[in-house]
Design a protein that fits this description.
OB fold (Dihydrolipoamide Acetyltransferase, E2P); two-stranded antiparallel sheet
């Protein structure tokens, strides 16, 4: 039997849209039908992160956001 996690690589980077958050504060999304738990996802559902897969299992994965040097703050200002 082939598992969906074969489509991902540990250490690989992917774009993930946060669909929900769990009680631990992790963002939850999917990449190639694999559920991805994003540690330290500070945003609400709907935000897209570029993440690095840190731990890969057969049916799910853990990831951390790749820090960007640019981000927006609440008033719409861009911080570089």
């Amino acid at each position: 039997m082939e598992f969906a996690s074969n489509a991902l690589e540990e250490g690989g980077t992917y774009e993930v849209r946060v669909d929900a958050k769990n009680p631990k504060g992790e963002g939850i999304g999917k990449v190639n039908d694999v559920v991805v738990f994003i540690k330290n996802a500070k945003a609400r559902a709907g935000k897209t992160y570029t993440v690095k897969i840190t731990k890969l299992h057969q049916t799910f994965a853990y990831a951390e956001p790749i820090e960007s040097s640019k981000y927006f703050i609440g008033n719409g200002s861009l911080i570089v």
